[in-house]
Amino acid sequence: MKGIKKSRILFLFVAMLLIAFTVACSNDEDAGGDADSDSDGNDTGSSEDGGISGDLELQYFVGGYGDSWWKEVIAGFKEEYPDVNVIEHAGPNINEEMRSRWVSNDPPDVVYIDGAGSSEAQMVEDGQLMNLSDWLQDIELENGDKLVDSFIVEPANYDGDVYTLPLVFDTWGTWYDRALFEDKGFEVPTDFESLMSSMEEIKESEGIDPFVTSGQHPYYFLRGALYPAFGAAGGEELLTSVIKGEEGAWTSEPVLEVMKRVERMADEGMFDSGLGALNHTQSQMNFLLHDNAFIPVGFWLPNEMANDIPDGFEFGFIPSPMQAPDETFAIVPDLRPLAIAENAENPEAAKAFVEFAFTRDYAMSFSEHTGAIMNLTEVDLSQSDEVPVYLTEANAMINDPDQVQIYNKPHPMSSDLETPVGNALMSLMLGNASAEEFVEAAEKAAAEYRSSNE
Amino acid sequence: MVQSKKQKYLFLAFCLIPTFIMFAIFTLYPLFSGLYYSFFDWSGSSQNKEFVGLANYIKLVKDAIIPNTIIHDYFLVATKVIGIMVLALFFAVALTQLKIKEAPFYRIVFFFPNIMSVVVIGILWTFIYNPNLGLVNSGLEFIGLESWAKPWLGDEDWALPSLVLPSVWAGIGLFMLLLMGGISNVSKSYYEAAELDGASEWQQFWKVTLPLIWPQVKISILYIVITTLNGSFIIVQVMTGGGPNNSTHVMGSYLYQQAFVQYNFGYGATIGVMILILSLLTVLILQFFMRRDKVEY
Q1: Domain around A442
Q2: Whole-model pTM above 0.90?
Q3: A178 and A163 together in one domain
Q4: What ipTM is given for this predicted complex?
Q5: Is A12 part of the contact surface with chain B (CB cutoff 8 Å)?
Q6: pLDDT truncated to tens, each residue of chain A (454 aa)?
Q7: By the CB < 8 Å criterion, does A93 face chain B?
Q8: Closest Cα partner for B240 from A217, A316, A454, A288?
């Protein structure tokens, strides 16, 4: 008897395990179906009186700009729409953390596309973002100006359609310590030749390798120093053909000429000899510690390194001086957009939030919080004392076409092209390849990229 | 009490089914889904997948970076096996045979890196190799060898060899303990007999210790090979990210780059299949070469 009883318990236990296994491995189509349907009324996005309500899921990357601006906007939004429950998904790794939600077709409603692990082009290609072309025409700013006419840089254009609204206007340029330069009488460069003479002077008097960038991520130098040089040398046409990897673009004469300048910098020992191993933060730290004098990065630098800035350090920003003496300074804006998921569960609230964030008041507060610029025109930064000096100066410079030419890229370069080009670039910067070898390698990478897209 | 047949089978089922279920969920399912995804063009971040047949495998064969990643992996395998086995054996013999008073202390010291996360070890050694502040370059300068100082991890030729040292350092402890266990099981009488026959310590090591702990040595080597082929990814990713210019990419880190940085998840899965096949082949070949009859005296 006892034996039979025992075996029954065993059998029961095994059966339970099997059931648990079946349940755990069953397809969660049911769950997905529930999430997609709005029939239960909780997620419809509009309450009985026609207002906006329900849950609003917001995904935003927190990097160099911090999250204080987002907190302010979200608090303001909650005040305006008390029936909406805002659920924030934020942090430096949020793109990775939310990836499974996107893959399983259960995305957040609004997404700010920025930081590692995110790719606007890939999201559009995968059909994950809502087409905003028609809706954009109706959005107005607080004074009645149409949003579509008030962007500094137009939204990215995907075969005539708009899927993302550029929120942050960042631009890469070259940073230096203004206090050090004034103290030692170093020349602030205005073109490539003066950059070389300035670096020579610094090398001699300070005994340092003057130029640093992140070698683990060679795209910093590509976007921060080479894009502007390509723009200055061949305008948006050259920039576009290089980013798209068109045939012959990388081996063209103007590109080779720019790359010869990089080769010269490597030959004359201007690059930090250890840059090959440096990541993003290490390279910025080297710059702050005066191990180097120049670094090409975006507007996020002062905010990101706020806790590590030595006393007396004063940020100075110039468009990257990689252009020939007869060309003007060039900058290539880098935009971080806001978008709505194609499968947003609460599209009404999502639209309300996007519309709410795009105002000139918030643009001003964005510059105060982050030290960067929001992508809206007619925001007078000089009126605020809290906006850092480098930013008002840079803003004035960017808006003066005699000093600086703006060249827009068609869209970000695909990482399938950027990665191999970056690797070849690394070899060039370390002095292991010539400019000619680099352009050949880049042209080959572009050919492979084109064939992979066919 | 004699068990009935039914009871026996029930007991076997009780032992095997839960294990099999776990094995199926955590090993078979990922294995086959990896194989499945390798036939698709998939970004890994959406539901859009396109069946492309063997296209990813053709790309794999044509990819010029792949042969280098394989060479880098086997370079790490070879250097780690030699480095770890020589040092672990040396320490194990020293700590068991030489009757050092502080043996327990050294055992803890050598085992210490094993309880540290590989990520922490990677970051630690990144600082040690730092060209300006690092211990290695300052040490070289201190003993008057400035000309040898270099940006270790930033140099296309030196970055990969530089990864060997932290990997060996992190690996010694575990295998040292394993071998110590083996050595302490060898009966003292063999050594006494060998000594009476006039064998030197060196001869005792080669003729007595090594043959008798060969099973442990074999397991250690296989384990190092497998963990290196599957796990060298971590140290590469933390210390160099595969750079500069792909000079330290191993198969695992290249898989990661393709799948999660360049959004070619399908191609990443294909690289995963290649890693599986190569690991299996390597282990089979090693098993063949290391087979020895069990020695008993």
Answers
A1: 173-331+406-453
A2: no
A3: no
A4: 0.80
A5: no
A6: 444 455 555 555 555 555 544 444 444 433 333 333 333 334 444 444 457 889 999 999 998 888 999 999 999 999 999 999 999 999 999 998 998 899 888 999 999 999 878 888 888 888 899 999 999 999 998 888 999 999 988 898 888 899 999 999 888 999 999 999 999 999 999 999 999 999 999 999 999 999 999 998 999 999 999 999 999 999 999 999 999 999 999 999 999 999 999 999 999 999 998 888 888 888 999 999 999 999 999 988 988 898 999 999 999 999 999 999 999 999 999 889 999 999 999 999 999 999 999 999 999 999 889 888 899 888 888 788 888 888 888 888 877 888 899 999 888 888 889 999 999 999 999 999 999 999 999 999 999 999 887 7
A7: no
A8: A217
Domain ranges of chain B: 52-290
Give bridge partners of residue A174 from the DSSP assignment: A296, A318
Token digits of residue A124? 């559009």
Q: Are A120 and A188 found together in one domain?
A: no
Residue A159 resides in a domain: yes
**Centroid of chain to Cα B171:** 8
Cβ-nearest to A14 among B13, B45, B47 = B13
In DSSP terms, A411 is beta-bridged to: none
A window 360-379, beta carbon within 8 A of B: none
Do A446 and A373 share a structural domain?
Answer: no
A293 & A417 share domain: yes
List of chain A residues whose C-beta atoms are within 8 Å of the C-beta of residue B235: none
DSSP H/E element including B31: helix B29-37
Look at B243 and A218 and tell me if their CB atoms are within 8 Å: yes
CATH code, A118: 3.40.190.10
Least Cα separation, residue A186 to chain B (angstroms): 24
**Residue A37 in domain:** no
- Residue listed under structure tokens 């996007």: A354
Question: Partners of A178 in the beta sheet?
Answer: none
Question: How do beta strands A110-112 and A165-171 pair?
Answer: unpaired
Is A3's CB within 8 Å of B4's CB?
A: yes
A146 and A213 both lie in a single domain: no
Contact of B147 with chain A, judged by CB distance below 8 Å, is answered with no
Dist CA B81 CA A174 (whole Å): 46
Task: Find the largest Cα–Cα distance for chain A.
Answer: 101
B130 touches chain A (CB under 8 A): yes
- Beta-carbon pairs below 8 A across chains A and B: 124
- Class of the CATH-defined domain B52-290: mainly alpha
Q: Is A424 on the interface with B (CB under 8 A)?
A: yes
What percent helix, strand, coil does chain B show, rounded to 5?
75, 0, 25
Total domain count, chain A: 2
Q: Do A126 and B43 touch (CB under 8 A)?
A: yes
